[in-house]
Amino acid sequence: MTDTLTVTYLFHSGFLVAVEDVLLVFDYWRGENNTLPAKACVSEKDFQRFRRVYVFVSHSHVDHFDPIIYDWDRAKYHIEYIISDDLPQGVPGRRMKPGDELTLEDISVRAFDSTDLGVSFFVEIMGRTIFHAGDLNLWHWREESTVREIKQAEDDFYEAVDPIRGLNIDLCMFPLDPRQGGLFDAGINHFVMSVKPRVVIPMHWQQRAEVPLNYARRGRTRYTEILALTKPRERADLTFGEDELQIHVHTPVSGLFEEKKEPEIPEERNDDPFTDTDLPVNVQ
Length: 284
Known about the structure:
It is a single chain. The chain is 12% helix and 27% strand. By secondary structure, the chain is α/β, with parallel strands linked by helices. It has one domain: Ribonuclease Z/Hydroxyacylglutathione hydrolase-like (Metallo-beta-lactamase, Chain A, 4-Layer Sandwich), CATH 3.60.15. The strands form two sheets. The protein has an eight-stranded mixed β-sheet, with no helix packed on it. A seven-stranded mixed β-sheet has the order 7-8-9-10-11-12-13. The termini are far apart. The C terminus is likely disordered.
């Protein structure tokens, strides 16, 4: 069993996770109109010291699936693609739907459900466990949704999370989306309290760095450490001891990427609450 994972935040829901000589890439996206600076983008130089690379795509939304991943030299860097079954037919990779399991040379993967398109991924590698939620979240808008819509969203979310309870998760990446307004953190709170992952990194926070930073100050529990990585290429070495966890954060030089400035949350909205979300909830 390895003691150390190195996790690097890229952008939105994208991460690199290095485990000894194996690299995992999750939901890479260069931003709307490819706005991510070149210094922050993934390139083949990221793969050079690794024996094998596994690239994960949780679903087909543009902010989780960037076709640039197929421009990387698959043969030279031993890249394997593991993708959600909702991606268009013909997109290369090992396709997974909720409930599927996959065992490869270095890793085993289980696909769990999402409350949006696609899947969430649970990865076991060298004795360590990593969970990337994709768009699994409690997608509700407390100020604007009807009671019935909120109840449906809650039921869907609790049903999706229930099979994950009891898993031992060392590192988890989970959405924290301020567009939801009041109780926008209900999903991540439930996941932290019910699943108890060892380390949780918020993602999907719409370029508003204050959101994960504030949550990290108040969201930790005796079982779970909350780690806010807010700058592209900011990384953390996680060392898991028998009785302790050591976290060393490495922050890139300032100015690499400017965070989007938004009003403080919760924000007021006058438009349709489901037009600006990953999951339109239709209640009959």
